[in-house]
Amino acid sequence: MSIPATKVTPPLVDELDIVIPTIRNLDFLEQWRAFFQPYHLIIVQDGDPTKTIHVPEGFDYELYNRNDINRILGPKASCISFKDSACRCFGFLVSKKKYIFTIDDDCFVAKDPSGQEINALAQHINNLLTPSTPFFFNTLYDPYREGADFVRGYPFSLREGVTTAISHGLWLNIPDYDAPTQLVKPLERNSRYVDAVMTIPKGTLFPMCGMNLGFHRELIGPAMYFGLMGDGQPIGRYDDMWAGWCAKVICDHLGLGVKTGLPYIWHSKASNPFVNLKKEYKGIYWQEDIIPFFQSAVLSKEATTPQKCYVELSKLVKEKLGPIDPYFEKLASEMVTWIDCWDELNSATSKIDVVPKKTEAAPKKK
Amino acid sequence: MSIPATKVTPPLVDELDIVIPTIRNLDFLEQWRAFFQPYHLIIVQDGDPTKTIHVPEGFDYELYNRNDINRILGPKASCISFKDSACRCFGFLVSKKKYIFTIDDDCFVAKDPSGQEINALAQHINNLLTPSTPFFFNTLYDPYREGADFVRGYPFSLREGVTTAISHGLWLNIPDYDAPTQLVKPLERNSRYVDAVMTIPKGTLFPMCGMNLGFHRELIGPAMYFGLMGDGQPIGRYDDMWAGWCAKVICDHLGLGVKTGLPYIWHSKASNPFVNLKKEYKGIYWQEDIIPFFQSAVLSKEATTPQKCYVELSKLVKEKLGPIDPYFEKLASEMVTWIDCWDELNSATSKIDVVPKKTEAAPKKK
């Protein structure tokens, strides 16, 4: 008798959606086929909704364009940005899965120093399924990794760690620089492969990039709102930063962990620094007030869910950042709208129909 | 006419002392000769003062044994531990230099992944001479390194960084594990070369290992007291941890930076886990109270120098940790003695003669 073949099931295949915001054909998926094909994709089409986005054969996906977003959310669609990658958070909203991995369509498979192709998704899953250690720094980095552990002097009571909510991956080739740095260092490429994953300590903020990002949707999804950017807004390219600042404050409050480091993806194309400067300049100015605001933001004991935390944070934004510019009052208001949407689409008794329909104006289900 | 040869002077050669605690002949220096020989060594001989320690030819050094320590400090010598590597801090006290590099005598030259020998001292100097960024996390690690910078979303007002006070290096081969972990993983070796230097964020404590450590003596030296360990004490192997906790709290208070990561040294020999367990067990128990104590320690606005900070901290230790065990009252008292010694030996009008004498009982100057 022959031994039956064991089917290797990719991890979390039924519990994770891959969210991709795009304005173009998704040919980049060809390179990711071996790693992504077993998973479900949620594609958020930005820009002109009449344009057809080509998705390579064999991928299981649903696709939403602006018309779909307007139809599904109605007047509340105002909280979803247009003509900016911030629209990706619509994918977080309509997912029904426990985990999200989101990636930009100019990100390709990177290689580790041994020349092996990096399965970025598998590394994010590993990061998310192992604990974080936000209360004390481990000098040998991730203590749960093979060949590593907690070093001498690390309190034993803290060695169980906490649940990881966010896994922030990095980029080889084009680094994620702001417009001024792009202008000053147009030729700089990131070629340093740092073989580490680490927890960002409690109380420390970080610049979260949305290009290569995994998170626990049930635990922190409601805080992953990418704000008001792009069309009709005075600012762009701060969508992921905003989500990162909010999410980190809420993770710290709820005792959840945030990791950064591996996996790397290959970021292929630098965006135009002159265009970026126009999008960023108010953000560059405002962030000097935004950072101290988030560093000192304190949530109440009553804020026990990410939704409650986020609504509390929106009130603080209105109160403390509103005086800087009316933009922040509008943002605070849409933060609340976002949570309304989240609760409606994610409640057990949700009455909103988000099942992609096979009509022309509706999202395409493959 | 020929071009005159340019003499390359090693960095900080007149501003840095290398401090080595030892009980044996310093043959390990042979491997470090190319990197250490231009620098002055301060050797602190632990254990039997009648034993002669052999130092390889050609090194410039001064050596202190227990008799020297007793002669120089008199009754205040009680603050310097005996039969424990904690005695190394005597070297910090008698140095007149701006920077210290301290290394254990079982640490050898490591190689980077390309096979090149790592000049650990040069990397520490580089870490110390470039700023730290304790107020916000940079996801591409040290932004001052070649090929790296601050990423998008990093506030511009924080990009100048702060002065670096401590550079904490790591270890290939034998990792710095506590006795329980040594017992559980006797064969674990660290073979992962993580090509990164990073700032430990403000407000985050870390386990500082004294094996491979550089620091700015003028700025943080008074906090680098390695406590009461070894002979006559209920605890060992927490000397560097104690110094690290105190120093980090004081760096955070004074706005100084602490870096960890590169350089690696090759740690050759694991110490006996059974002996270590005996030394550590009270520390393992006590640190569960010590860590929360340091995490919540607040220094006053009047504490504007490391000395003032340290004396304030000693009072907090007495008040908050004293009730745990009389050991902490004794330690708090010796922390004050240490600062007395520091001020006496480091004042412009110091009356204590620490110049090593060429008599038999006195330290040897080569």
UniProtKB/TrEMBL annotation, chains A, B:
<keyword id="KW-0961">Cell wall biogenesis/degradation</keyword>
<comment type="similarity">
    <text>Belongs to the RGP family.</text>
</comment>
<feature type="site" description="Required for activity">
    <location>
        <position position="152"/>
    </location>
</feature>
<keyword id="KW-0413">Isomerase</keyword>
<dbReference type="GO" id="GO:0052691">
    <property type="term" value="F:UDP-arabinopyranose mutase activity"/>
</dbReference>
<dbReference type="InterPro" id="IPR037595">
    <property type="entry name" value="RGP_fam"/>
</dbReference>
<protein>
    <recommendedName>
        <fullName>UDP-arabinopyranose mutase</fullName>
        <ecNumber>5.4.99.30</ecNumber>
    </recommendedName>
</protein>
<keyword id="KW-0325">Glycoprotein</keyword>
<dbReference type="GO" id="GO:0009505">
    <property type="term" value="C:plant-type cell wall"/>
</dbReference>
<dbReference type="GO" id="GO:0071669">
    <property type="term" value="P:plant-type cell wall organization or biogenesis"/>
</dbReference>
<dbReference type="GO" id="GO:0005794">
    <property type="term" value="C:Golgi apparatus"/>
</dbReference>
<dbReference type="GO" id="GO:0071555">
    <property type="term" value="P:cell wall organization"/>
</dbReference>
<dbReference type="GO" id="GO:0033356">
    <property type="term" value="P:UDP-L-arabinose metabolic process"/>
</dbReference>
<dbReference type="Pfam" id="PF03214">
    <property type="entry name" value="RGP"/>
</dbReference>
<feature type="site" description="Required for activity">
    <location>
        <position position="159"/>
    </location>
</feature>
<feature type="glycosylation site" description="N-linked (Glc...) arginine">
    <location>
        <position position="152"/>
    </location>
</feature>
<dbReference type="GO" id="GO:0005829">
    <property type="term" value="C:cytosol"/>
</dbReference>
<dbReference type="InterPro" id="IPR029044">
    <property type="entry name" value="Nucleotide-diphossugar_trans"/>
</dbReference>
<comment type="function">
    <text>Probable UDP-L-arabinose mutase involved in the biosynthesis of cell wall non-cellulosic polysaccharides.</text>
</comment>
<keyword id="KW-0333">Golgi apparatus</keyword>
<dbReference type="InterPro" id="IPR004901">
    <property type="entry name" value="RGP"/>
</dbReference>
